[in-house]
């Protein structure tokens, strides 16, 4: 599509610190991981510092010369910037360096394009790519910005650039329509689960925190998991039975990252709605990562952006197997509710504690009571046994049965209804 050299596998990385932006140098390590995840070999790095970016070339003339020399010496095919470049900056730098130039957003989009597996995932990635590309079309079509001349071709008409922009807009509109259909289907599934009172537990967290490994450990499924950024793009749902709770749907979602491009958040909104509509979020954190506090903050920012910051969450500090002499444990708040569980999804340490904490957080409307049933209440007693809610039974001298039960309040009212009883027809005591 564009008249440029093919993308190679060797890249020069550029990272500039700006005093006005407060950009951290440690981002370079993460960018290195991103580039490697994209299947590109970083052969050299160029770093520097400026007060603020140059409007035309982003970097100064001297730094540009250094990048050009480095790219030539290393025979690099592409120069990757750990920053967001404007279309004009990208075009100007390409013209100066005579090689392909990509910014951080372009690298992330490339990874997403490689990893998308489902039809929906591919549509979402294509949408993000097209919207990113729409502002950069002029760079690829400069040779077609004039109308064609010659016999039979003279007269009014749109330039090739205008034609291409129109086609791009039409394709973006078509993808939006198809994604809207996907969103409606997801809404339908969520409404059905809500009607059936099935809670959803959604895994969120920074990319490469171990969400898919934890998902596999919890659900005993074979979702693709790897030690790389953005291994998961397509949401996966699994049904799970939890004691006292019953059926629960567990959702694995795409990971977040610093400066996640806004267009990507928009494109993946249908996927991320699983997070917004969840009953409980499991915020998975790589506890071995030195930047875990910053990563947690980034995740919270994205959750706020998609409107999921009001959903109850439980922190899961993963990868304790990488810490020395660390045993699984649960941390609680002042009210005694679990707020953080330390586990290892890789080895399975602390999984029982995690299950207990999830049950505890989901079972905030759990009833634990003693019910006195007379001979005429046999149907309710049978239903309670069928639901597996009976902890203990005691026969009283007058022939009644005292049944100690534990179940969700909604299930209790459903069983009463099925037995044809109202709440005032049953004697309830403290256990």
From TrEMBL:
Assigned keywords, A-Z: Cytoplasm, GTP-binding, Magnesium, Metal-binding, Nucleotide-binding
Question: What GO molecular-function term can you cite, just one?
Answer: metal ion binding
Signal sequence segment: none
Which PROSITE patterns does the entry link to?
A: G_HFLX (PS51705)
Hflx-type G domain spans which residues?
199-366
Name the positions where GTP binds. Answer: 205-212, 230-234, 252-255, 318-321, 344-346
- Coiled-coil segments on the chain, per record: none
Question: Origin, by domain of life?
Answer: Bacteria
Annotated residues that bind Mg(2+) are located at 212, 232
Names of the cofactor(s): Mg(2+)
GO cellular component terms given for this protein: cytoplasm
Q: Which SUPFAM superfamilies match?
A: EF-G C-terminal domain-like, P-loop containing nucleoside triphosphate hydrolases
InterPro entries assigned to the protein according to its UniProt record, in alphabetical order: EFG_III/V, G_HFLX_dom, GTP-bd, GTP-bd_M, GTPase_HflX, GTPase_HflX_N, GTPase_HflX_N_sf, HflX_C
- Supply the Gene3D superfamilies for this chain: 6.10.250.2860, GTPase HflX, N-terminal domain, P-loop containing nucleotide triphosphate hydrolases
**Where is it localised?**
Cytoplasm
Against Pfam families, the record matches this protein to: GTP-bdg_M, GTP-bdg_N, HflX_C, MMR_HSR1
- Keyword field contains Membrane: no
Assembly and interactions? Monomer. Associates with the 50S ribosomal subunit.
Alphabetical list of HAMAP family matching this protein: GTPase_HflX
* Family of this protein: Belongs to the TRAFAC class OBG-HflX-like GTPase superfamily. HflX GTPase family.
Protein name in the entry:
GTPase HflX
Gene that encodes the chain: hflX
């Amino acid at each position: 599509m564009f008249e440029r050299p093919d993308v190679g596998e060797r890249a020069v990385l550029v990272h500039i610190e700006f005093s006005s932006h407060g950009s951290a140098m440690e981002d370079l390590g993460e960018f290195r991981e991103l580039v490697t995840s994209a299947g590109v070999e970083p052969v050299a790095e160029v770093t520097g510092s400026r007060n603020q970016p140059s409007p035309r070339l982003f970097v100064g003339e001297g730094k540009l010369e250094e990048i050009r020399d480095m790219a030539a010496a290393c025979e690099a095919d592409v120069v990757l910037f750990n920053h967001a470049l404007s279309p004009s900056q990208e075009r100007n730098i390409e013209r100066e360096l005579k090689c392909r130039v990509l910014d951080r957003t372009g690298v992330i989009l490339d990874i997403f394009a490689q990893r998308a597996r489902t039809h929906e995932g591919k549509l979402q990635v294509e949408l993000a790519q097209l919207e990113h590309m729409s502002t950069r079309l002029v760079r690829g079509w400069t040779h077609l910005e004039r109308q064609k001349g010659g016999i039979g071709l003279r007269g009014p008409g749109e330039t090739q650039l205008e034609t291409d922009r129109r086609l791009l807009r039409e394709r973006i509109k078509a993808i939006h329509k198809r994604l809207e259909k996907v969103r409606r289907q997801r809404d339908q599934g969520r409404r059905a689960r809500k009607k059936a009172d099935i809670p959803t537990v959604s895994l969120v967290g920074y990319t490469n925190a171990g969400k898919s490994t934890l998902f596999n450990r919890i659900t005993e499924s074979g979702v693709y998991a790897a030690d790389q950024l953005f291994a998961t793009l397509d949401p996966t749902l699994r049904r799970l039975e939890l004691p006292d709770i019953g059926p629960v749907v567990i959702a694995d979602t795409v990971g977040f990252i610093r400066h996640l491009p806004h267009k990507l958040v928009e494109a993946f909104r249908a996927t991320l709605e699983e997070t917004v509509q969840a009953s409980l979020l499991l915020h998975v954190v790589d506890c071995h990562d030195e930047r875990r506090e910053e990563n947690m903050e980034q995740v919270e920012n994205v959750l706020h952006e998609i409107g999921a910051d009001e959903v109850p969450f439980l922190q899961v500090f993963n990868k304790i197997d990488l810490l020395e002499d660390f045993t699984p444990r649960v941390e609680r708040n002042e009210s005694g509710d679990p707020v953080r569980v330390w586990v290892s999804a890789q080895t399975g340490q602390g999984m029982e504690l995690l299950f207990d904490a999830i049950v505890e957080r989901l079972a905030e409307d759990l009833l634990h009571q003693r019910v006195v049933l007379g001979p005429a209440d046999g149907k309710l007693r049978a239903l309670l046994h069928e639901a597996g809610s009976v902890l203990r039974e005691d026969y009283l001298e007058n022939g009644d049965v005292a049944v100690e039960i534990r179940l969700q309040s909604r299930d209790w009212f459903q069983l009463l209804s099925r037995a044809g009883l109202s709440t005032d027809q049953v004697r309830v005591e403290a256990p």
